[in-house]
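Invent a record, attention on tokens:
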Amino acid sequence: MIKTLSERDNGRLDAVSAPTSPAGVRSAAVPALVVADLIAHLVEFTDLAPDTCVFLGGLGGRLRRSNSRRATHWRGTVQRGRASTEKGKST
């Protein structure tokens, strides 16, 4: 069964048994280029249960709205991505 987690204003995560309407179901496109890396990540870092989180924090906890940018070093990741994209452009 599909479950969702909702982070409340007090930081608590509430599990909801299922989306209440079809609008609550989300799909995510995964480019073929990253499928092998994603599978390797799942094997190394998760327990492969159907309801496991794909990405966890450094201590194994769920990433939350309040800590995801810091935990993923998001700013540096975006800057490195931009730099590699710029390097690959032909002039």
Remarks:
- The first helix runs from residue 32 to 45.
- The two ends are 50 Å apart (CA to CA).
